[in-house]
Amino acid sequence: MNSWSLSDIEVVSRAIVSAPSVHDTQPWDLRLDGTYAEITERRGFTDTPRADRVISCGAGVANVELALRALGRQIETDLLPDPRRPELVATVRSVGTTSPSSTDLRLFSAMARRRSHREAFADIPVPAATIADIVSAAETTGVRARLLAADEAPALADVLLYSADRVRHDPRHQRDLFPWTSHWLPRVGHESVDTIHTVVTRGVPDSARLAAAIEGETVLVFASGTQESIDLVRTGIAVERAWLTAVDARLGASILSYPLRVDDTAQRLARRLNLPGNPQLILRIGY
Q1: What CATH number does residue 247 fall under?
Q2: Residue 231: DSSP 8-state
Q3: Which spans are transmembrane here (predicted)?
Q4: What's residue 186's pLDDT?
Q5: What domain count does the chain have?
Q6: What are the angstrom distances between the C-alpha of 254 and each of 68, 117, 213, 228, 271?
Q7: pLDDT at position 191 over 60
Q8: How far apart are CA 166 and CA 89, in angstroms?
């Protein structure tokens, strides 16, 4: 017997649609049946890295969980529960009723206000207590959210420029669908848009200028313990919880993952930051 009302279905469906996804592809399917919600990965995408698609599905799981808790449901979540169905990302079961917490209700409200801020932030420091809350919200088994120290900005800048240089010189990477330099240096003019609206990297910005822009912002690096699908799903859950916590604190944010998918860029960043695990994405936060 189906326990989902039409309003429940609408709330949960809107929640997963509002989750961030690579190039807004929404690479998931949602099925509500009986007492559970089932999130599966849609296959067939060839122009986006699979890691980003699975991370996106994890963000969708986080929103489904939050929507169900906001509806007053007690839930249990199983990630990748069936080895015979590798496309099944998660099953979220309703196991009872409860009153939603004030935090759940605030974060659920934040879903509708979450946007990608792909320009420079205002020159206003984010309070340390707020950063701590965001990092705490990201605490998930197998995933670490690491605050970038000010003196590590040059290391991140060097690695990003290495990635951009590889894109510029390698025909396999000439079409970059994600204009990452616009996040920190929105008017440097190192990218242009061709006739089919694809961003092409034409050059790289100055290292010192990029490092100075990075140093002036709050930057979190998310790293997974492994490259296995389970840790990629957990990364998506962690980053969405962190992002919604930032929105609840009246902050903006944006994600960068594309540079870390180019050749050995992620490994280089791990070495430069002495970061255990596998860097998966960067979350910028600010006012």
Answers
A1: 3.40.109.10
A2: H
A3: none
A4: 57
A5: 2
A6: 25, 5, 15, 24, 24
A7: no
A8: 33
